[in-house]
Known about the structure:
The complex is a heterodimer.
Chain A lengths: L1 H18 L12 E3 L7 H16 L11 H9 L4 E3 L6 H4 L10 H23 L7 H25 L32 H18 L15 H14 L3 H12 L7 H4 L11 E5 L12 H4 L11 E3 L1 H4 L12 E3 L5 E5 L14 E5 H14 L3 H14 L13 H12 L6 H7 L18 E5 L5 E7 L25 H6 L6
Parallel strand pairs in A: 6-9
Antiparallel strand pairs in A: 2-4, 3-7, 5-6, 8-9
Helix pairs in contact in A: 2-5, 2-6, 5-6, 6-7, 6-8, 7-8, 8-9, 8-13, 9-13, 13-14, 13-15, 14-15
Chain B lengths: L1 H17 L3 E9 L10 E4 L5 E3 L5 E6 L6 E5 L6 E4 L5 E5 L9 E4 L2 E4 L7 E5 L1 H4 L17 E4 L10 E4 L12 E4 L2 E2 L12 E7 L2 H4 L10 E6 L6 E15 L9 H16 L5 H16 L30 H4 L4 E13 L3 E13 L6 E16 L2 E15 L11 H7 L42 H4 L4 E20 L2 E20 L12 E24 L3 E26 L10 E27 L3 E12 L8 E12 L4 H4 L4 E15 L13 E7 L2 E5 L11 E14 L4 E13 L2 E5 L8 E5 L2 E17 L3 E18 L4 E4 L2 E4 L6 E5 L1 E4 L6 E6 L5 E4 L7 E6 L4 E11 L2 E11 L2 E3 L1 H4 L47 E3 L2 E12 L2 H6 L4 E15 L21 E11 L1
Parallel strand pairs in B: 1-7, 13-16
Antiparallel strand pairs in B: 1-4, 2-3, 2-5, 5-6, 8-9, 10-15, 11-12, 13-14, 15-16, 17-18, 17-51, 18-19, 19-20, 20-21, 21-22, 22-23, 23-24, 24-25, 25-26, 26-27, 27-28, 28-29, 29-32, 30-31, 32-33, 33-36, 34-35, 36-37, 37-45, 38-39, 40-44, 41-42, 42-43, 45-46, 46-49, 47-48, 49-50, 50-51
Helix pairs in contact in B: 4-5
Amino acid sequence: MKKNRLLFIAIFAAVAFAACNKDFLDTRPTNAVPDDQVFNSVDNAETALTGIWAYMYETYFTFAVPGLKSLDLTSDAMGSDVALTTSYGFRDSYTFIEMVDNTKNRVSAYWTILYKTIDNCNNFLSKIDNVPGDDAKRKLLKGQASALRGFCYLTLAEFYSFGVTTNPNGKSVPVYTEPANPSTPGKARSTVTQVYQQAIADLQAALPLLADYERDDTRKFKIDSKVTNGLLARAYLYSNQPAKAIDAAVAARNGYPLMSGDDYNKGFNDAGNVEWIWAQPQTPTQNVAASTFTFLDVSTPVSYYKSFKADPWFQGYFDSTDVRFRLFQWSTSGPGALLYKKFRFRDPGGMVSDVVLMRAAEMYLIEAEAYARTNNTTKAAEVLNVLRSARNSHLYNAAAGSSVTDTILLERRKELWGEGFSLVDIIRTGGTVVRKPFKTVNGTDSIIKVPQPDGSFVNVRGVGHRTVKLPDGSAFVKNSPYYLFAIPLSELQNNPNLNN
Amino acid sequence: MLQRLLILLLLLGPLAAFSQVRTVTGTVLSAKDKEPLPGATIVIKGTTKGVLTGPDGSFRLEVADPAATTLVISYVGMTSQEVPVSTAPITVTLQSAGKDIDEIVVIAYGTTKKSSYTGSVSQIKGAELENRQVSSVTKALQGLASGVQSASQSGQPGSDATIRIRGVGSINASADPLYVVDGVPYGGNLSAINPYDIESISVLKDAASAALYGSRGANGVIIITTKKGKVKGSNIDVRVSQGFSKRAVKDYDRMSTDQYFPMFWRALFNENLNSQDSLSAARNASRDLVGELGINPYGSAFPEPVGADGKLVAGAKPLWSDDWNKAMQRTGHRTEANVAISGATDKTRYLISGGYLDDQGIYLGSGFKRYTVRSNVDIDARKWLKVGLNLSAAHSDQQAPPSEDSRSDNYIQYGRLMGPMYPVYQRDLNTGAYLLDAKGGKIFDYGDYRPDPANPRTNLVQTSGIDKHNVLRDDVSGRFYAEATLYKGLKFKTSYNADYSNRVGHDYTNPTLGFDAEVGGTVSKANYRTFSWTFNNLLTYENTFNEKHHLNVLLGQEAYKFKYTFLSGSKSGFSVPGVDEPADAALIGSFDGYSDNYRQSSFLGRAEYDYANKYFFSTSLRRDGSSRFAPDRRWGTFWSVGASWKLTEENFLKNTSWLNLLTLRASYGGQGNDNLGTDRYYNYLPLYSVNSNLGLGGTFREYLFNDRLKWETNLNLNIGVDWSMFDNRFGGSAEFFVRKSQDLLYSRPKAPSTGYASVDENVGALKNTGIDLNLHGTPIRTKDFSWTIDLNMTHYRNKITSLPQQEIISGTKKLMVGKSIYDFYLREWAGVNPNTGEAQWKYTNPDGSIKDTTNYSKASLYYSGSSLPDLYGGLTNTFTYKNFSLSFLIVYSIGGKILDNDYTFLMGLGGAAGRAWSTEVLDAWTPTNRNTDVPQVSTVAPSWTAASTRFLYDATYARLKSLNLSYSLPKSLMERAHLNNITVYVTGENLFTLYNHKGMDPEQTVGGTTYYRYPAVKSVSAGINLSF
């Protein structure tokens, strides 16, 4: 009997000690890897660039913040030409109560995306030199990381302070170039000039590194020298260095001809478009960025919020021969809204649409504006007219009286509607939002006769801008603080150095 | 039956006769409730030879001395009894000595007598649960034990309640208590436990009681013990009930069509006034009204149903009035059936049970079906060896449509928010008659014409019957132990315990109708599998020295392993309707999967000592290693000390006849918490998260790692007094507690511009201070009639005592030293401006003066009270008269606030055409109604429903949580029918609610915010309980 008991104990003691194995408490995740497995070869290190890119564009913060592409929608919602509905999404950006409110999710989302990307680039750049592997590839990856950081700083410079022409020493955002650790303190806001300088320095550093890189055009999300030049063109123009912008813009669009009128009417959903320089392609299994189309696409049934309706006054800027004019259509169901059917899902079943990040038309417009700002009106008009003729619009004639710069800025609104440049242009030029209600001269409703396929007409009471004043009830003015993005409350609370 | 027993006796009889040694077998029961008394002493009179009864109260004693004639049977707190030695099995019932209320309570790694326990524990008996109409045991805990705060935020059948014990002990790390089933931490679904199988639930609230679960007991421990076979022979118990359920409280009052149309006219009119003279503004409003809302329920006879005076045109009557909210609901049907066979033989005790529950939800497309089986067996394999195996399995099929979600297809919101003028079925717009299809059936109206806020092209009343939101769960739990007696009082127990839980979510929306028709329908399936085991080895020694020194020591080792595996995929585009699996859909949307591993290793010890049943001391020590921390930081040490003093055993009180018990208790100790969250198992490693872009592999740095992380500690002081008097008719306990959480596992905020909004660190401290009070009384106790009352109440204050920075705002709350973690921090409502009709909030100027502003974002934020109640608890009254019994439980919560976000959807000012309106909007500002709390309506009015104190309501409520009336048929009838017992009963749940803010269910989250959840359900059931 006693022996039995001892045996019993012995067996269980053995099992117990086996369970107390030293490695018992070491566990490893399956959806993450320690950094030494990333930075052990140049090929593996490349995943760190792909990964942060996917984070930027394919992360939902909310359904109304589907990654960084939604920043472009915010920019247009806060401009003059989109008459947003009250549907979920960008309605509070449109009324200027969202981006000034430092407690809003959208305010912290873009800040988070951009600075997390910056830190990932910083971390990448600090490590890549010591990673074994092919030097040519290392060079290319360094260039891409540097350009990506430049893009982030460029984006930050656009929205957090007035333009350099308004106040070159205005406080913008902090600049970090070293990777963070748990004790890294928050830094002070740099001036808008400094932030543009950082962006330009990063992009310039990238250019030689990317000189030999030939991008596979099915991978238009990758940064090559064209993309880098395009970003540089933006950075120079926005920071009031127009002379430098010209060459960069020309270099960026080299090899990317303007698309045909038919292509312009195809829904802005295909990265294969000849004019697209930079894009985030989408698939049915990767369509977070494409969900910006649930706001932009106002005509496909599958699109849910359809909130980006056009200001009816905006239609008036187009010639009726313009290929872009064909995209307007009055909605006859519900409140009469003007649809601008520029954006349409490519594959509605899969909710798929590629999203555009940069295209040749913008480069023509940068080039034209840069000439105009360097007082070369002739060249400016010439370049502008290349685009106008491609769009089958009447050509600009300086003799007609309107200023070429104003014409180009208006052409940007017409050509780039929904692509995210409205607020950028307003801030950098010290301009103002222009919105007026869609009423007749007597103040009564505008009734639109909408022709039907059978030849009859349906009367629609046209609805335009709902919000025509700033939240405090005052009129839109130049350089209104309502145009700027707030720095999120969490930054104010946790960065004592911010305003030093 | 009798014959079979006789045969058994005849077979055994000769064996006894041949033996020179007489063997006495029997059972010791308490006279009061006929429950077995484990640990009772049976001694041969005049000697020290004797045995103790086993867990089932049975004993077996060999009497070698032929001269011995009498046995003495004694038990602490009971009057000893002498019985003659006999070879026939005997049953002894012991009467209470009137000096003690000796409840056996289940505690960490064992059981104890409540009156001698140094820790704080509340026990809920199975009988208090078995009549409850709940599908998850967590929902039955409310109001039954002091210190337990329960938030049943969802009425979805099969959902769990959130439980907080003695305040909220953590900010970022989990504040949930540890659930222990049959002695071992439970890793399965709580809804897989059939409440009918539960013998008792112990709530361990202080350090002395919970510290032995040191690693995971910081937020209290809830020990669920399942039933076992007890009494010799076998007993079959059958319980069947049928019932109905409805919404517990009426939904918000909403406007009728006749109220809605003039009000929306006014919204249009007010908007028109911005650009038009009042005459054309009025005319245009009348003209545009029907177009804006998309439909004219008054028929073509009244093309402009609201005249230019803003009133309904004379004679205009709506041709239909459909209530979508009603259409989305139904009377739920509830069926429950349970059967258990339990019993014991000389060497085995067993219970086998099976249960079936069909709890149909009150909203379309929701419900919960559960099938459970359980088998609990204990075997005395050898004189020195006991083994036992508890096995349980549950399968459940839950239909859980979207609720707790701001989606427009939220089943709770959908009907509530639909304007009253939209028909559920297609109507003739001239007559209001139903349009019929070829077969004469009504046709659902998908409302193409409805404006966006009224969900055009959808009809959930129909598609709820086609779409699927199912959750299938399978749970299997095993508890195996073997216990060997090595030497007198020295025992070794080993146990291996495993919980397997598998959940499959299956969501399907059909390809032809409703929300996802445009993408051809969608399907997603997700599989969540968890498997965990706990292996422990315990050595215990118990002995009494010199009759007065009682010692109980426990030493042990434990290992815990947890593995979680996740797999999910989604597709869209069904080729044909009527099939709903991914195989039937064309387009892959996503495919994902990963697994997580978590482990713990522990060593533990406890010593309990008492002197003369008068002074009690206990101490425990435990060391835990957690895989969540770096190797050099992963071990934590947790401990407790406790003492109690039974004053009524002292000479100066021993003879006080009216006082039966007076005990003072105190304990102090520390417990740990490593639960950073279910997605944070490896925070000490410098990790790169894995993702991909268009088929290319990606990694990125998502979080900052911290290899200095260590255990969060909860220091817990408990001081209590227990008393019982007047023949134990009145008694209670009062306890004072201080729970200090330190080294909080806290995500310390960082400047997000560094790339990371936070880093996990051990910083900050919290304190919960409070009082638990339990009162028990039997005001009336006669032969036929008795009335007992149980009242419990808890008050606590939660206070932040240290933070890494001055203040942290998160959501609607702000954290600051001196404030609680659930203090609302909101814009303060300043009323409607009586002159302009605009909404106003308060703001503080830099000079400190407070002004009103109509600009919401300019308004300042202020502390606006806490969501935590001042006092909560429950009151149970039980009346028995002869064979009738009536009992009811009222739960109450006094103080605290709730921010009602659900309601704001009904409080728009006209911007969302077609969305239902609260009747409160009828009181909107007009030039003639200036003193109101609702601003002027207008289709372009600025939003005023964003979070502010305007929608902050007092959370005080009382609820008749359960009511039970039962009747047991008289014993005389039973015997004739060879039955032990028949009880018939009627029972109700949530029958009555006292609450001020109508429409909202007062049971919301601990944090006091609503989120479009499934409301609580009231139910009435009738049942019968047979035992034979």
